[in-house]
Design a protein that fits this description.
This protein is of the alpha+beta class. The strands form three sheets. A five-stranded antiparallel sheet has the order 6-7-8-5-9. It has a three-stranded antiparallel sheet with strand order 1-2-3, with no helix packed on it. The termini are far apart. The protein is built from eleven helices and ten strands.
Length: about 325
């Protein structure tokens, strides 16, 4: 089927027009790779987008989180927010089955199983007393990161704008080499502009719009000093958006850079976790259980099966199955 060829060559075999080649290959970035590096099997992402379409939940992506929280509460679960975990407790201090968690407040919560959703290598490093993470997590290849500019602006989108709008820079292969290998910003950045309020007017006041603007960047292994460059990158991104005809009179905004992702517990400051090189894909990703820590289950993008909202939701289902299996083995 040709799935182990490179994506760029596979797509070029169907389209001569460079613009179409970009449209049908940029999705490799979802896997943390350039089109000339990614396996052609990742064309399935483009296929699913094109054939099945893209769905947007009314109320924004946070509506999905609220729905999951409501389901937990309806099943008798208790949700506590703003209660940071200091460590995962184990029966013999640093060995044996998990027995619960200790919060930064000093409170102990006992549990027969713990599901950890910080980025997997961060969980090992900060919550498990220095227990070594799997080799892939410690020495693997991590995806590039991104900056995201969230803005509530006065005015409406330009004619012809869609929910998702991709604006490619003139450079292509050079852009990927810049962020993936040179560790610098794209020389002519390609950006995504998403207009959530365009399809859900409840997200913005009348006559106003929401902008979600994403530019891929190197992760924190790169050469950018984000403490020095943060404001300049934000300003250049906002100027690019305005030049493209989007409304730019800002009422409220938030800007997220790789240091912010790192503060949120993302390894190497990337929200996209380990890249999907072949030996970091699917069953080759770090396992969601560790035989050294019975009762601990990992969930999220750095464990199986991988990155992306649908994939991470699958990881949640797998985590639930592992908790049930542990309970059966423990006789609970």
């Amino acid at each position: 089927m040709g799935g182990f060829r490179r994506m760029a060559k596979a797509v070029a075999g169907y389209f001569d027009d460079e613009r179409l080649q970009r449209i049908f290959s940029f999705q490799s970035m979802y896997a943390g790779l350039a089109p000339y590096e990614a396996l052609a099997l990742y064309c399935v992402i483009t296929y699913m987008d094109s054939v099945e379409g893209v769905y947007f939940p009314t109320g924004g992506m946070h509506a999905m989180c609220r729905g999951l929280a409501a389901a937990i509460e309806a099943a008798g679960g208790e949700l506590r927010y703003g209660a940071a975990v200091e460590t995962i407790l184990r029966r013999h201090g640093t060995t044996g089955d998990v027995t619960g968690v200790r919060l930064e407040s000093g409170e102990t919560i006992r549990a027969g199983a713990v599901v950890a959703n910080p980025d997997l290598p961060v969980a090992y490093r900060t919550l498990l007393g220095g227990l070594d993470a799997p080799r892939t997590a410690r020495r693997g290849h991590y995806s590039p990161s991104c900056v995201v500019w969230h803005a509530g602006v006065k005015g409406l989108p330009p004619a012809g704008a869609a929910h998702h709008n991709i604006h490619f820079g003139a450079a292509w292969d050079d852009a990927f080499r810049a962020i993936l290998h040179d560790g610098v910003r794209m020389p002519d950045p390609s950006i995504l502009v998403t207009l959530h309020s365009m399809d859900d007017p409840s997200l913005a006041p009348e006559g106003c719009s929401t902008l979600y603007v994403l530019e891929p960047t190197p992760n924190l292994d790169g050469r950018i000093d984000w403490t020095a460059e943060r404001d300049r990158v934000r300003d250049s991104l906002a100027a690019r958006v305005a030049a493209l005809g989007y409304p730019s009179e800002v009422e409220v905004e938030a800007f997220v850079d790789p240091l912010d992702w790192e503060r949120q517990g993302m390894e190497r400051g990337t929200p996209f976790a380990l890249s999907h090189r072949f030996l970091q894909t699917g069953p080759f990703r770090p396992n969601n259980v560790d035989k050294r820590v019975p009762g601990l289950v990992f969930v999220g993008s750095s464990t199986v099966p991988g990155v992306g909202v649908p994939t991470v939701l699958v990881s949640g289902r797998l985590a639930a199955e592992r908790v049930e299996e542990h309970g059966h083995r423990a006789g609970r």
